[in-house]
Amino acid sequence: MRIVSLLPSATDIVCALGLEDKLVGVSHECAIPAGAGAPKVVTASTIPANLSSKQIDVAVGQQLQQSTALYTINEALLRKLKPTVILTQSLCQVCAVDQEQVQDLADSMEDSPVVVDLSPMSLNGLYHSIRQVAAVTASRGEGQKLLVQLQRRVHTIAERSETLRRRRVVFLEWLDPPFVAGHWNPELVRLAGGIDLLGTAGQPSTKTTWQQVQDVNPEMIVVACCGYSIQRSMTDIQQLSGNPHWEAMPCVKGGQVAILDGSQYFNRPGPSLIDSLELLAHLLHPEMHRFPASLGPANSLLTRLSMAS
Predict the structure, then answer these.
(1) Distance, CA of 265 to CA of 259 (rounded, Å)
(2) Do 10 and 125 reside in the same domain of the chain?
(3) Counts for the chain of helices (H) and strands (E), in that order
(4) Residues 6+ apart with CB under 8 A from 101
(5) Are residues 21 and 138 in the same domain?
(6) Strands (E), 158-309
(7) C-beta neighbour count of 108 within 10 angstroms
(8) pLDDT tens digit string along 44-75?
(9) Phi then psi dihedrals of residue 175, to 5 deg
(10) Which of 61, 83, 88, 156 sits 20 to 30 Å CA-CA off 294?
(11) Cis (ω within 30 of 0) for the bond into 292?
(12) What share of the chain is helix, strand, coil (3-state, %, to 5)?
């Protein structure tokens, strides 16, 4: 078996199933897992990494309008790797290589690999993705074990949060312009003991305005920018200084703004979504949910912002 994974969450699932040694190719955004040997990087982004968030938003909009690809595939390398399975997605054309492009390429290869489209919109969608990968890799037993472990952790958080007062949250996945996180994130907020004031579970992320964020008067703003580490998000946060809507919100004045790692957790629909849920539960109700110590030091995964910052 020779697996090429074109998105980080798929790579995470492969590794969680104990198949990291079967990886021969990964995307430019995938972390190379221990035990994976030396899989080749087969994709690249056409958007320069050093742009500001606003510049990235403009560049993405222009390229989509012109039907220009946001990502490229090294076709020659992919053919050379001779994969038997390619894991891709059709959920978001901004997030990874287009699924149709991958399918067309696979169909043109001598030994046509199986292309698996992983496009979850919810935790149930994540469970389905795990089943898909387990089925195509003849790992159904390991897949079922993984599902039981993940679902048990979700149940524990949901049960503890059920009777807690719901905290009113705005969850953002981009800051300039602001985008409200959708897909699975409103579900995570609910399970963690909150109410997502602007996001809709199972629906795509949506552009909003700072006026709209101010109008709903959240108790807390959670920021997990798509593809960004905490450090990269902090750069954007600083640029909100002087924004009248931002500075007028009680939650901002009161230090109830949390910056989380979107790249590693909340924007990555693999097993780390359950880590994300546990992080969020601790953030909303620390009196009930301990920080998940298995993830490492809290200050590396969660930053609280104050006006002094």
Answers:
(1) 12
(2) yes
(3) 12, 14
(4) 69, 73
(5) yes
(6) 167-175, 178-180, 194-196, 206-207, 220-223, 257-260, 302-305
(7) 10
(8) 988 887 888 888 888 888 776 776 677 889 99
(9) -115, -25
(10) 88
(11) no
(12) 45, 15, 40
* Strands, E assignment, 126-177: 167-175
pLDDT at 300 over 70: no
Does 212 share its domain with 255?
yes
- Pairwise CA distance, residues 172 & 222, whole Å: 6
Rounded Cα distance between 118 and 139, Å, is 16
Residue 84 included in any domain: yes
Contacts of 103 by beta carbon, 8 Å cutoff, 6+ apart: 115
Q: Does the reported pTM lie above 0.70?
A: yes
Count of domains in the chain?
A: 2
Distances (CA, A) of 195 to 23, 24, 238: 39, 42, 26
Torsion of CA 222, 226, 228, 230, to 10 degrees: 10
Residue 307 reports pLDDT greater than 60: no
CATH of the domain at 69: 3.40.50.1980
Asked whether residue 157 is domain-assigned, the answer is no
Owning domain of residue 75: 3-146
242 & 117 share domain: no
Contact present, 191 and 274 (Cβ < 8 Å): no
